[in-house]
Amino acid sequence: MPQKRSPRLVRKVRETAKAGNAKAKDVLYPLILILRGTRKGIRRAKGWWVKTPKDRRNGILFLVALALIVVSLFPWGPVLVLAALMLLAAWAGREKEDPKKKVTQAQAKKLQAIYDGLVPYLHDPADPDQLFKHGGDFRASFDRWKFDQNDELAELELHYSRYFRDGEAEQRDKVETVIELKAGKARDYLFQWDEQGNRLVVSSRPPMPSLIPAQPFVVARGEIVIGFTDPVSARRQIPVEIDGVTRQLAPVVWRVGRRSTEPHLLALGHPGSGKSNLLRSFALQAVRAGHRVILIEGRKTGDFACFQGRRGVARVAAGLDDALDALRWLAEETERRADAISQARLAHAPVPDEVSQQLWLIVDDLVDLVDLARAAGRPDPQQYLEAPLRLGRSANVTVVLSAQYAQARQFKPVQLTQLRARVGLGAIDQAGAKLLFGSTLGTGKDDELPPGRGWAKIGSAGMVRVQVPYTPDPYDEETAETDRSRVLALLPS
Questions:
Q1: Is 320 in contact with 377 (CB distance < 8 Å)?
Q2: What distance in Å separates the CA atoms of residue 161 and residue 123, rounded to the nearest whole number?
Q3: Residue 442: what pLDDT?
Q4: Residues 327-369: pLDDT tens digits?
Q5: pTM of the full predicted structure?
């Protein structure tokens, strides 16, 4: 039987071969430069010759032959030309500085930490390339990175194994979570997956202002500002005053009325995430635009008390009986409006002003109202929403419903199909995002979002992050005097 070689002997042979290879490269380095540069020059000359028109090639050959004849007439001419060509080849064959090597020790440590954290999720023993492996180097799979002046990761592009299940939201969520945790939560990261090219681009987005006060916004008729987002996510910017300074911010605009493609909206959020603040912002913009508004509180919190008796506010219902009565009236009013508009159009007559005015229904914590009705043996409030949701667009009726994330599954499927404008405030997991928006967020998890911060999606448009205008309850004792005065000044008489 053949004897097994000693591991120490094998290791020594490998080290000797590696050392000899390194010495040979050092000795032959000038020749390697010249050969590499010559190969590049021949490749470029060949490409240039192919692109040159045929009618110009004879003239070029004549000039080259004439130059060679002239050079050969001078003493030492061919030798000098050959030396010049070798110098040019050596210059062209030099190794250009790789931008990947421009990394400080701290940056390399952070990139290596991200790489090591991704190994358990992106390592595949069946992958022949072994892009992610235990003990590997981040340069094997990280193609591009960029740090800001504070040494915080600003951009990162990596490629992964073609066997990775990037089509599954759970697998992508794990990778996004690791990158965000290892890179640090000083920035908000956006993850762009290229499933066809097996690449992932991670980019940081600039911080958004966390406190945008309620104010009259410069928008077109029938447009409502949900909040503000990144400039790259919007097509325009509007002037907004913050702390006495006018800034240009990108709004998330929602169109209501007969021309709206998504006439109804669903808002979800945790307690304290700014859900009632969003509904007050909607109501304030609606009454200032000359619309009529019906406000219903599912918990008797008094969040809409400031609208009681204001011009344009048809009703503020805070109890179960008042809420059911308001919903019943709205269902009948929606059908009456739809019939009146249909008859006017069939008669080629103008639509009456009383039905052309936009009518809003804003219900806060609808599921709590449903639970109260069920416990009291009363009719389900959701049955009165069928007509407004189905005929709302043609009858100039807009419905806005809100609830907590845990209550989202209690909505009827018919309602969810009609409520295609969606807003989610506060921290949300990927399962909740899948239910609300139909896809994952494409951003890392953040459990410390400021109030009013979340995501918005209108119909089939893309999902964008949003910061809701700060519209506090002016009757709340904890509201600052400046904020109270601002909201009261915006409310109609």
A1: no
A2: 8
A3: 54
A4: 999 999 999 988 988 888 888 888 888 888 899 999 988 888 8
A5: 0.70
What per-residue confidence (pLDDT) applies to 91? 75
| DSSP bridge pairs for 385 | none
Q: What are the C-alpha distances in Å from 223 to residues 113, 235, 251, 262?
A: 46, 14, 11, 12
Taking the CA atoms of the chain, what radius of gyration do you get in angstroms?
A: 34
- Name, in order, each residue with C-beta under 8 angstroms of 361's C-beta and a sequence gap of 6 or more: 294, 296, 327, 330, 388, 397, 398, 399, 400
**pLDDT tens for residues 381-409?**
889 999 999 988 889 999 999 888 888 78
| The predicted structure's pLDDT at residue 450 | 81
Buried b (16+ CB within 10 A) or exposed e, 191-206: bebeeeebebebbbbe
Interatomic CA distance for residues 211 and 205, integer angstroms: 18
Q: Which parts of the chain have pLDDT scores under 50? A: 1, 97, 100
Q: Encoding tokens for residue 49? A: 């010759």
Residue 152 to residues 189, 190, 465, Cα–Cα distance (Å):
12, 15, 21
Per the structure block, which two tokens stand in for 307?
């609208």
Distance CA 320, CA 376 (A): 9
pLDDT at res. 428: 76
**Nearest CA-CA partner of 207 in 230, 227, 225:** 230
What is the C-alpha to C-alpha distance for residues 61 and 54, in angstroms, rounded to an integer? 11
Query: What is the structure's pLDDT at 104?
Result: 82
Q: How many CA atoms lie within 13 A of 66 on its CB side?
A: 6
